[in-house]
Amino acid sequence: MIAEVAGAIVQVLVVGAGAPLLVGALRTLKARLVGRRGPSPWQPYANLRKLLAKEAVVSTTTSWVFRATPYILAATLLVTGLIVPVTTTRPPLAFAGNIILLVYLFMLGTFFLALAGLDAGSAFGGMGASREVAVAALAEPTVIVAVFALALRADTIDLGRIVERFRGEPWLAANPAHLLAFAAFFIVMLAETGRLPVDNPATHLELTMIHEAMVLEYSGRYLALVEWAAAMKLFLFMTLLANLFVPWGLREPTGPVAVLLGLLALAGKLALLTTAVAVLETGVAKLRLFRVPELLAGSFALAFLSLMAVFLVR
Amino acid sequence: MTRLAYGLVALIGIAAAGLGGYGVVGGAGTLRLAWLVPLGGLELTLDPLGGLFLGLIGFAAVPASVYAMGYPDGDGRGRFAYVVFVVSMCLVPVAANAMTFVIAWELMSLASYFLVLHDRESEESIRAAWIYAVMTHVGLACLLAGMLLLGADLGSLRFADWRVSAPALDPTTRNAVFVLLALGFAGKAGVIPLHVWLPLAHPAAPSHVSALMSGVMIKLGIYGLLRVTLDWLGSGPPWWGVALLIAGAVSSVIGVLYAVVEQDLKRLLAFCSIENIGIILLGIGSAALYQVAGLEALALLGLVAALYHTVNHAVFKALLFLGAGAVVHATGTRNMEAMGGLIKRMPWTAACFLVGSSAIAALPPLNGFVSEWLTFLALFQNTRLDAVGQNVVFTLGIASLALTGGLAMVCFVKAFGITFLALPRSDAAAGAHEASPPMRVAMLALAAACVALGLGPTLVVPAFGSVAASLLRTTPPAAGGTWLTLRVSGDFASLSTVAIAVSIAVSLLVPLLALRLVGASRRTRSYETWGCGRIVQTARMEYTATAFANPFKRVFDFFYRPTKRLDIEFHPESRFFVERIEYENPTRSIFDDWLYRPALDLLHSVARAVGALQSGSANQYLAYILAALLLMLVLA
């Protein structure tokens, strides 16, 4: 019991405290790639501290939904942090509902964030909310189908057990269908976390933004929570991608050493993945909004092919 | 008098719920009045499946009636039809022979026809009621044909006899009966493409009736489909299950696609019912396929998922329609573009509607999530089937369920966000008032039921498991998991909504405490919304329901086939001043254009051709009689 609670706390700490660093590292890398010095990777922590010290401005148009949303959003992401195998293959809440729960918890956060976007009554919030839910709704089938393709090969839908199975029998992963699922999941990861080429996290032109337009009305501590939650979402999606498709290094929670080794392995995998995302983001331009569904449909087709391959090549 | 009628229905509802519960736990009983009607007499039997649906009708009728009692300035019109409607719905699931069933079924259809015609002044209501009457009677014709075909072949109209001897019938007859009965029931359930009446009829009725029509009446179509597919005819060939799965996949995706772009709040809910019927069909279809393949545990899982979603949808759809009714009464319109800001004027209704919206969008830990989770699990395990064709159909089912989940979330962000949040878009919305106490009580009770059904799957699933087992004639599965965790198919998956709810609650404390610990500023300033320097904020700057759904209109334009119409009237003095702009961007229904329109045209042209025989001349009619007589003599 104590070990489980300790495991849960470690996992929450890793996700909650590590997420801003991941965002910072990504920004630094991107800056270096285009020849700028860029901010330090620790800059997001400074940003959060600055935001926390400021007063919050809340529109008179809004209701309690607007003020409750940052808390709900942060809470759902902390809970998802307990479902994803981050440091061990037996995350504390693995028994609560597996991959489907994970996808629907992300939707819970998006649901409230989109409502908050509408609540202020400005056109920007509504536009951002409309676009964000459109992307989320079209990305969701890919997440489920891609992970399900892995689950079929591992014969369980428990994320941790999928990792264990692939680590134990790597030849299961050695087929093109696995690669298809990886590509599909990579694309939806970019879409769900608002990265290029779907959304530009660095832009300051409201009309082209998705996520940033939706949260435009937030300020002070509310904005800090929303940004923290966005960082956690990026962290969790990248962790999922890293641990599901590259299962090595992650162990059962047999003791602090195993957790530490898992953490080190995760850090290495995330570093590689962050570099890949940074290179990609420097290389591509943002897609026109109505080209995004084509990208998502493409990723869905990849995931679907990967799933079909399981049936046809067994 | 009006209150008396609604009170009576509430009492009937309580009795039906009690009796249904008794049936679910295994109580049985039969009532037979042979003299009352010909062809087998009136016969009622209580069994677990019938008990479940009877209990569901009773359970939904109570809040609907309490709500109706509190609905202000109701003139009491339609109260008699309402009583008949609820009573006849209660009779359908306990009917034990074809005669009783058809009488109850038709009474239910007629009573609901009069309720749809509630507003008999409006063209729209009259048209809705007319289409409803036609569609429901085409369905009835299919049902009658199927039942008589089966009855004639087996020599009995009692369902108990069908159960015994129908599985031995020749495949052609069984297939024919299945097609006829399934078409009849699918029409009542609103399965695409037989759904055209549903988005017209449900919004036209008063809201407490819409709640019952969408919540439980269409579920009786599901009840019939369950009886046909799994009970009366025994287990059928695999294509029955495949057909149900495909119908489910198509209905769920297309239903929610229509719901997303809808501006009429009640019609949005009606389209969403089609989507949920699709999700239920996915469960039933998988159960049918697993049963044929001899995978009893998986068949039970699929059926439990379907039954769970049936009950859940009844609860949250009734809640949403009651909420929509309160909004429609307060604002005098069903058009979402004229709503907004109601969360401040109707806080109770808004909170209940938010619970219903979250539940129907399958957000954890509420009830919609539990049944969609079970449906996913039932679909996921298709790898146990060794037929590639069926696997592919299952995969389509998984993909459509996932897409439906995402689109339902969008749909209810729109329904709640545009209706209740931001600034009111009309004077009526600005002057809206909270619903009366009985209406609030009814909505709160249903919202509580959403939460309870969400948190209690470990109690509910075994109960539904025994109902499903009695229908599939197997033994119910041993309880999986503990009170906290529901285990499905051994180690394959587990679910614990209680753990989710507790973790979310605890996690809510984390940011609250963390902000305290790091000494975050607690100052808040109220100020107007930022708007690029414009002087005042008005409701016209808000995003509209149409704009919110526009990305989907563009992404799925091959399906919606939107048409644009722009009318600009210039000032007579100068072309530089615009007097009026009218912009319309309606979608077109491919079912109307490609299915019903050609079918009606064909019907008209055939009728015209046959009409040539009717000349009106008496001599010609005499000639027909003579010809007919001669023909008969020759043939004899």
Report, as a whole number of angstroms, the end-to-end distance of chain A: 41 Å
In terms of DSSP E residues, the strand content of chain A is under 5%
> Runs of chain B with pLDDT <50, length 5+?
none
In helices, the fraction of residues of chain B equals: 55-70%
Structural class of chain A: mainly alpha
Order of strands, main sheet of chain B, comes to 1-2
How many domain modules of chain A? 1
Rg on CA atoms of chain B, Å: 27 Å
Q: How many angstroms does the end-to-end distance of chain B come to? A: 63 Å
Sheet having the most strands of chain A: none
Instruction: Tell me, rounded to a whole number, the average pLDDT of chain A.
Output: 88
Strands of chain A, total number:
1
- Please tell me what the overall shape of chain B is: globular
Work out the helix count of chain B: 24
CA-atom Rg of chain A in angstroms: 19 Å
Number of helices of chain A: 11
Assign an overall shape of chain A.
globular
Helix-strand pattern of chain A, N to C? HHEHHHHHHHHH
**Strand proportion of chain B:** 5-15%
Ordered list of secondary-structure elements with their pairings:
The complex is a heterodimer of chains A (314) and B (636).
Chain A: H1 2-33, H2 43-53, E1 56-59, H3 64-81, H4 98-119, H5 123-154, H6 159-168, H7 176-192, H8 211-214, H9 220-245, H10 256-283, H11 292-312
Helix pairs in contact in A: 1-9, 1-10, 2-9, 3-4, 3-9, 4-5, 5-7, 5-11, 7-9, 7-11, 9-10
Chain B: H1 2-24, E1 29-33, E2 42-46, H2 48-70, H3 79-91, H4 98-116, H5 123-154, H6 159-165, H7 171-189, H8 198-204, H9 207-232, H10 238-260, H11 265-292, H12 296-331, H13 342-345, H14 347-360, H15 367-380, H16 388-420, H17 427-430, H18 437-455, H19 457-472, E3 486-488, E4 493-495, H20 497-517, E5 524-527, H21 545-555, H22 557-560, E6 565-570, E7 578-584, H23 590-611, H24 618-635
Antiparallel strand pairs in B: 1-2, 3-4, 6-7
Helix pairs in contact in B: 1-2, 1-3, 2-3, 2-9, 2-12, 2-18, 3-4, 4-5, 5-7, 5-8, 7-9, 8-9, 8-11, 9-11, 9-12, 10-11, 10-16, 11-12, 11-15, 11-16, 12-14, 12-15, 12-18, 12-19, 14-16, 14-18, 15-16, 15-18
